[in-house]
Amino acid sequence: MTTLTEIEAKPGEILTCADIAGILVIDADDIRKTIWKDQKNGKNSFAFPIVVVKHRTKIPKIPFIKFMRGEAPN
């Protein structure tokens, strides 16, 4: 299981569904399916930003970490 400390130490500014799955205790494929369904409906079921480019899902690291800490987004 991935920890928030491991996510913080991960290089780069973008996370994947696989990166966050362990923290959220949700299967990465279920996260992807929810995101793709949301994209079709023009919404976001998660409380942090998600970017979809073609079939690639990108999660900005800083907002995700702030969400997990319970901090308000900027």
> Tell me, what's the shape?
globular
Derived structural class? alpha+beta
Q: Treating each run of at least 4 consecutive H or I residues as one helix, how many helices?
A: 4
Q: Which range best describes the helical content: under 10%, 10-25%, 25-40%, 40-55%, 55-70% or over 70%? A: 40-55%
Strand content: 5-15%
Strand order of the largest sheet: 1-3-2
User: Spans of 5+ residues with little confidence (pLDDT < 50)?
Assistant: none
How are helices and strands ordered from N to C?
HEHHEEH
Largest sheet: 3 strands, antiparallel
Question: Strand tally, please?
Answer: 3
Calculate Rg over CA atoms.
12 Å
Question: What does it look like?
Answer:
- The protein is of the alpha+beta class and 74 residues long.
- Helix content is 50%, strand content 14%.
- The chain has helices at 4-9, 17-24, 28-41, 61-69; strands spanning 14-15, 51-53, 56-60.
- The model has no long low-confidence stretch (mean pLDDT 91).
- Strands 1-3-2 form a three-stranded antiparallel sheet.
- It contains four helices and three strands.
- The radius of gyration is 12 Å and the shape is globular.
Which structural traits does this protein have?
74 residues; alpha+beta; three-stranded antiparallel beta sheet; 4 helices; globular
Layout of helices and strands, plus pairs?
Blueprint: H1 4-9, E1 14-15, H2 17-24, H3 28-41, E2 51-53, E3 56-60, H4 61-69
Antiparallel strand pairs: 1-3, 2-3
Helix pairs in contact: 2-3
